[in-house]
Amino acid sequence: MSHGWSADDIPDQNGRTAVITGANSGIGLNTARELARCGARVLLACRDETRGRAAESLIRKAVTGADVAFVPLDLADLRSVREFAATHAPDRIDLLINNAGVMALPYGTTADGFERQFGVNHLGHFALTGLLLPRLLDTPGARVVTVSSGLHALADLDMGDLNSERDYRRWIAYGRSKTANLLFVHELARRLDGAGSRLVAAAAHPGYAATNLQSAAARMENRRAAERLFELGNRIVAQPASAGALPTLYAATAPGVRPDSFTGPGPLGWRGAPAPSWRAGRTRDDVRSERLWVASEQLTGVRYPEPGAA
Question: Which single residue of 64, 122, 217, 229 has CA 20 to 30 Å from 110?
């Protein structure tokens, strides 16, 4: 991996189609803009239409001739996920970037009754990927990139309490959802390899990047002091969102990305150029990843097709 890899190193993306969840701001918006700049057709899969169309307009202004469009997708509602796959998803998908997420929110549930962080960060993306998998398998050179976090280190999954019903602590629940992301990538990569498929499933994380994710909970709860503190940290300590998007862009486009790899920023994992990132050994545990997979199929009602050879 090149030490100084940057957006200028993204290969030509002409003829390729990318679906990016949560692409209306932060890491997702920057990822979408750079892929559009390199010629990709980019679908901004977002919950909020106003913000999604505003992001579409921003990219069109920044990139002459950008092929970009907003498409509705609410990962907190499995009916919306199914509608997206049936109605809005393109026939050809070269890149599926599972980017959207929520962080350390007060307890809440999705439309289907799942704890919100586990439901959005993991189950929504699990269902989306499964529903789009046939199209990904039919596209040579396709990749699935799931955005996790170094904060997966905060907590392992409690397989007996996936929805944190017994004991909800917002940061622990966030760490569990990010652990779930990595276990999902591991199991997907393992199943693809076992079937001889060339579809690459990889993971990335942005490190500490200045986005609205950090202050969302404080804003929701009207904790103004906490909101200002997060905003100050973003200005002083964090790297810009454009830099935070680089690990995702690397995992999505750089040659030779290995299945089940985990790319983050720099050797310390919080800022810098894309580099292999540390991950807890438990996120590569075959038994745990399979248990989560089976549970996720049961919870979402999405059964993954057999990959076959692609």
Answer: 229
Active site residue 174: yes
Q: Return the ∠ at Cα 296 (arms to 294 and 301), rounded to 5°.
A: 100
User: For the purposes of burial, counting CB atoms within 10 Å of the CB of 59, is it exposed (0-12), middle (13-18) or buried (19 or more)?
Assistant: buried
Q: State the Rg of the chain over Cα.
A: 18
Q: Which of 107, 168, 174, 250 is catalytic?
A: 174
- Altogether, the residues listed in the chain come to a count of 310
Digitized pLDDT (tens) for each residue of the chain, 310 residues in all: 445 899 999 999 999 999 999 999 999 999 999 999 999 999 999 999 999 999 999 999 999 999 999 999 999 999 999 999 999 999 999 999 999 999 989 999 999 999 999 999 999 999 999 999 999 999 999 999 999 999 999 999 999 999 999 989 999 999 999 999 999 999 999 999 999 999 999 999 998 865 555 434 444 545 554 445 445 444 545 578 888 999 999 999 999 999 999 999 987 777 889 999 999 999 999 999 999 999 999 999 999 988 764 4
